[in-house]
Amino acid sequence: xxxxxxxxxxxxxxxxxxxxxxxxxxxxxxxxxxxxxxxxxxxxxxxxxxxxxxxxxxxxxxxxxxxxxxxxxxxxxxxxxxxxxxxxxxxxxxxxxxxxxxxxxxxxxxxxxxxxxxxxxxxxxxxxxxxxxxxxxxxxxxxxxxxxxxxxxxxxxxxxxxxxxxxxxxxxxxxxxxxxxxxxxxxxxxxxxxxxxxxxxxxxxxxxxxxxxxxxxxxxxxxxxxxxxxxxxxxxxxxxxxxxxxxxxxxxxxxxxxxxxxxxxxxxxxxxxxxxxxxxxxxxxxxxxxxxxxxxxxxxxxxxxxxxxxxxxxxxxxxxxxxxxxxxxxxxxxxxxxxxxxxxxxxxxxxxxxxx
Amino acid sequence: xxxxxxxxxxxxxxxxxxxxxxxxxxxxxxxxxxxxxxxxxxxxxxxxxxxxxxxxxxxxxxxxxxxxxxxxxxxxxxxxxxxxxxxxxxxxxxxxxxxxxxxxxxxxxxxxxxxxxxxxxxxxxxxxxxxxxxxxxxxxxxxxxxxxxxxxxxxxxxxxxxxxxxxxxxxxxxxxxxxxxxxxxxxxxxxxxxxxxxxxxxxxxxxxxxxxxxxxxxxxxxxxxxxxxxxxxxxxxxxxxxxxxxxxxxxxxxxxxxxxxxxxxxxxxxxxxxxxxxxxxxxxxxxxxxxxxxxxxxxxxxxxxxxxxxxxxxxxxxxxxxxxxxxxxxxxxxxxxxxxxxxxxxxxxxxxxxxxxxxxxxxxxxxxxxxxxxxxxxxxxxxxxxxxxxxxxxxxxxxxxxxxxxxxxxxxxxxxxxxxxxxxxxxxxxxxxxxxxxxxxxxxxxxxxxxxxxxxxxxxxxxxxxxxxxxxxxxxxxxxxxxxxxxxxxxxxxxxxxxxxxxxxxxxxxxxxxxxxxxxxxxxxxxxxxxxxxxxxxxxxxxxxxxxxxxxxxxxxxxxxxxxxxxx
Lengths: 356, 568
Description:
The complex is a heterodimer.
Chain A: E1 9-18, E2 21-31, E3 36-40, H1 47-55, E4 62-67, E5 70-71, E6 82-85, H2 97-107, H3 112-125, H4 141-153, E7 159-163, H5 171-188, E8 191-196, H6 199-205, E9 208-213, E10 216-221, H7 223-228, H8 233-238, E11 243-245, E12 248-250, E13 257-261, E14 264-267, E15 279-282, E16 287-291, E17 299-307, E18 311-318, E19 321-328, E20 341-346, E21 352-354
Parallel strand pairs in A: 3-8, 3-9, 6-7, 7-8
Antiparallel strand pairs in A: 1-2, 1-4, 4-5, 9-10, 11-15, 12-13, 13-14, 15-21, 16-20, 17-18, 17-20, 18-19
Chain B: H1 17-46, H2 57-64, H3 66-99, E1 100-101, H4 105-111, H5 120-131, H6 136-145, H7 154-179, H8 183-191, H9 196-225, H10 228-232, H11 239-250, H12 255-279, E2 297-298, H13 301-330, H14 346-352, H15 356-386, H16 392-401, H17 407-419, H18 433-457, H19 461-469, H20 474-502, H21 506-511, H22 520-528, H23 534-567
Parallel strand pairs in B: 1-2
Helix pairs in contact in B: 1-12, 1-15, 1-16, 1-17, 2-12, 3-4, 3-7, 3-9, 3-13, 5-7, 5-13, 7-9, 9-12, 11-12, 13-23, 14-23, 15-16, 15-18, 15-20, 15-22, 16-18, 18-20, 19-20, 20-23, 22-23
């Protein structure tokens, strides 16, 4: 299949309310041509609604949708050239696989020979040529998903929208299909937006991610950037596990410190910015644990221990705060005991202070 | 599906004697009052009169007789045309209510069902007065515009009346189908460039087709089997009226009536089979979790004006027989004038006076038929769902097959089968009023069975197993747990059997021997034969409609309460 001339897509100042509930609040985003982009967030964060606005199924109260720089906000769904794969796949049960795939091409009034050629091509692309004459109900979930993708890419849309395409597959298939999707996207060079609530899916196949919560884009960036430098507490806790510890800033200048509780304070590196109300954030694997309690700042007691195989996860109570520390496990290591005193240290460069 | 395969119970033991006796009794009833009469009809159709030897000569006679062949094609034409006209009424209403934000939707959903509570023959005469050559509409048309429209002429009059009464079957089934289509089915098509009428044609209608076909085949069968409507409109050259006339005028020994009856069975059987075949593997109900039916579009100004106009016109047509009947029942004289000359209560006086026997009989017959139906229905449902009795599926199948047996056929079968059975006093069994009750019960059994089946299916087996575990025997479990829990379904089944039996005529018409044994529908039919009897006939009709309407409302209440209780 020939690479599609890919286009960038952007939304500007999108606002949408259902009654009193503001589903999207002034959302602006730009997806580059050929990029694999994810909308990531918990359910109800507005990610699917935003996708449907791009496809034209929902009309925003305010804002524009730009495809290759051109405003398409006024166009109905059938004139947008934005292909969408539905969460339920939405395969028409009264048509064979072949007819499902041919549908969009027929709607574009292409010559029959061209339609046949492109249906073959699309089915070949997803490896379903032998099943072309089956009905959707005769296919497995994974096969149905591939038909839905073939049906959409057959019309060579300028942008591909995937609405939780893996959520109806079992865990093992999910890993395989997401690789196939990435592979297909790379081969076609197709600008793709992928909606998911699963951070692992987004991290593994997307170039960039927009993390959304409560109708607002919290942060946009590469998976690694989001993990290393989350912009706020929501992003930090939504992506991976994070220790989030409340406290207040004491002292000033070079003597600044973060006080978790009486007698439990941590010096703040001079370069760190600490906004008012910010909390201390660090990842479990960036902390270390030492037995004993001589003189260090973060000292407490081990409250529980979970053996995870490649690592051991300790829960440590430091003053009023509970924190999690992951320690890599190597054969022959001795584990700390629950109830023993312990000291937690974190490299200063791994410490973050984030506002909500 | 009500008649799905029975669930397997992993630890079901043998069948108790009580269950076996119940199954045998139900089986015997079905054999004697359904299988044998129908088989007799078929047997007579295929044998030589007198000798009993197999022959096809009766069918050759049928094909040689011009009247019968014409009647056959007339019946086919009327049934097919009724389906077309009913579709013209039902499809726009179903589309409007399911696909658009439309204020009138609730009104349509309610009023659209009204015709179902009145069988077409009840409204036929009223329709004649409203739409006939010298009816209200044509008189007004003639006055204002100088022309008339032959709504009620010949076969087309039958088509008109039948379509107006039976279109809700299509409306209900099609609306259910349309509501079952997931929104994403339509959105996926839009996303691929489809819109408007093309989208309707390629995606929405094909997905709704199974529901449409189910409704359309039901309309076809109902019209094909309808006996009273053509007779009341004075159309005799159709198949069902011919069967009736043949048997009542020439006698029950004449084989032609049976040949016609056989043709009726075959056609309604074929229509049911065709719709079942069309439905097979096409359970298109595709609403996904978190999904929802088709998106409803807001209509533009002119669109909604057009929609309201169409809905108003259709509803006016639909309500015409009801209004006409009501007017007629209060009218002194209504002839050659748009509205009756004067109004009176005399017809109701007469109906509640000397003709009260009709109402009394109807209440008695319909109640008895309803009781028989729920006893049989609950019994069959229990045997099918809760036991592993050999042949239980046959009971279910036989009881449901009653749906495909036209009323005329059953009536003829009863006459033939039970006329030879003499009572001690020398009267034939077929002349007893109880035969009417049995015919009604057999005709309505499928409805009660479906209600009981649904009720029992919703009761978890573990509720009964808990009772058994605590020491209750099968019989006591049934009495103390199963039947109380099924009560809602049983009541709903009784009401629906009662209501439909109260206005049933086709089998009754054959079996009523004297006026004192006749139910309301028969009395109505007799009254409507003469111009003078129209008033009292209409009054009976209004009473019948009111009776059925109350029942329909009660059954709705029971079902609603049951489903609320079930979902708690």
